[in-house]
């Protein structure tokens, strides 16, 4: 990999110390630079004021600091949701979202460019699969958004572009870094999956403390196959079995995400089946009225949503509703996609 294809943040400690030695810098500069990047969220080399200018110039000549550059920001300064379009060193594009809500500031970050899972109602699926993001490209989304956020980030969700569990190694590496190096509590980091069963079992066996969310969206095998092709590989029964395994192994609740699609999974009967499907499983369910992307699926009307939620009042598990913000700038759940891929 050439210097033009790698950023300074993408170097590990040994590589960084080797670089500093080659350009004649003292070893203690390593900690100073790390502090500027991960505690002060600096944008460029010039901001590192206690680093000698000649050293900054040498580093700048060698490689760029960040693996991602911001190309565009959607949403005004006073809006609760902003969307960021990034470009990688290799020229690919991806999106992340920053959301403010009361005392919570959440970033929704991407783990892949495009997605191979092909959920029919998700805009990212229209891109196909382009590439996995490296751990430092995942981390850099948080660094940029922390720098630009009006408030300190409190929560991180791996619910942007891509299927995190199809990039498992880099996602876990990034999540552990965000936890250990940047101080985000593990319970403040949520990793979402469309149902990659072996990785649900793997994350349980590895005893990571991060929260797990599963995108469920249907209550029968037939209906789930129609909208989530991952069901052809990992059946609904296998998915529920893996969720039970996860809880038995970790004793931590899973959040099931359920996107309400008009005429598909939004009837009171579907609500009853949802309760039956998850009966006996310690969990939470997050209902998400569909955010339309101009395709074949629509959002249920308010009466239908109300009747569905009324049925779920009988559930033995906690039910919440995510009224997505940022839909006007296509930053809502399931709306992330980019047109230009270099």
Per-chain topology:
Elements: H1 13-22, H2 29-38, H3 53-62, E1 68-74, E2 81-88, E3 93-101, E4 104-108, E5 112-114, E6 129-132, H4 135-148, E7 155-158, H5 168-180, E8 189-193, H6 197-205, E9 211-215, H7 221-227, H8 236-250, E10 254-260, H9 268-277, E11 283-289, H10 302-312, E12 318-321
Parallel strand pairs: 4-7, 7-8, 8-9, 9-10, 10-11, 11-12
Antiparallel strand pairs: 1-2, 2-3, 3-4, 5-6
Helix pairs in contact: 4-5, 6-8, 9-10
The CATH architecture of the largest domain is Alpha-Beta Barrel
Shape verdict: elongated
Order of helices and strands: HHHEEEEEEHEHEHEHHEHEHE
Quantity of strands, as a count: 12
Which spans of ≥5 residues are poorly predicted at pLDDT below 50?
Answer: 326-332, 334-342
In DSSP terms, counting alpha (H) and pi (I) runs of 4 or more, how many helices? Answer: 10
- How far apart lie the N and C ends? 19 Å
Please summarize the sheet with the most strands: 10 strands, mixed
Task: Give the C-level CATH assignment of the largest domain.
Answer: Alpha Beta
Give the helix/strand class.
Answer: alpha/beta
Structure report:
The chain has 2 domains: 3-62, DNA polymerase, domain 1 (Orthogonal Bundle), CATH 1.10.150; 68-329, TIM Barrel (Alpha-Beta Barrel). 32% of the residues lie in helices and 20% in strands. It has helices at residues 13-22, 29-38, 53-62, 135-148, 168-180, 197-205, 221-227, 236-250, 268-277, 302-312; strands at residues 68-74, 81-88, 93-101, 104-108, 112-114, 129-132, 155-158, 189-193, 211-215, 254-260, 283-289, 318-321. It has a 10-stranded mixed sheet with strand order 1-2-3-4-7-8-9-10-11-12, covered by helices on one side. Strands 5-6 form a two-stranded antiparallel ribbon. The chain is elongated.
